[in-house]
């Protein structure tokens, strides 16, 4: 028979920082993680490292958010993959609904 090639796929909803609410400093007023670049880069760095350790051939992210430094975190950790984007259907400029990383 023919040899079969296996392909591994990981999918992850990364929770866009604009949807992650955190307590406001001192006031307790809700604010989004998007207001704290260091916080969202730290959290997404942890997600990206987890995805790298999984070693999947294809990585699919939902709620990909184009904040400063965001995609660079994933590009660095998933450097063996090429990146592809599926634009958000609502047409919000600059937003990506999903992005895919394919092992080169």
In short:
The protein is an alpha+beta fold and 104 residues long. It contains 2 helices and 6 strands.
**What oligomeric state do these chains adopt?**
single chain
Walk across the major sheet and give the strand order.
Answer: 1-4-6-5
Q: What's the story with the biggest beta sheet?
A: 4 strands, mixed
Query: If you compute it from the alpha carbons, what radius of gyration comes out, rounded to the nearest whole angstrom?
Result: 16 Å
Number of strands: 6
Number of helices: 2
Determine the strand fraction and express it as a percent band. Answer: 25-35%
How far apart the termini lie comes to 27 Å
Give unreliable regions as ranges. none
Structural class: alpha+beta
Q: Give the CA-based shape.
A: elongated
Q: Kindly state the mean pLDDT as a whole number?
A: 83
Q: SSE order, as H and E?
A: EEEHEHEE
- Name the helicity range: 25-40%
Write a structural description.
This protein has helices at residues 37-54, 70-77, and strands spanning 9-13, 21-23, 30-32, 58-62, 81-87, 96-103. The strands form 2 sheets. Strands 1-4-6-5 form a 4-stranded mixed beta sheet, with no helix packed on it. Helix 1 runs parallel beside helix 2. It has 2 helices and 6 strands, in the order E-E-E-H-E-H-E-E. It has 104 residues and is α+β, with helices and mostly antiparallel strands. A hairpin with an 8-residue loop joins strand 5 and strand 6 (96-103).
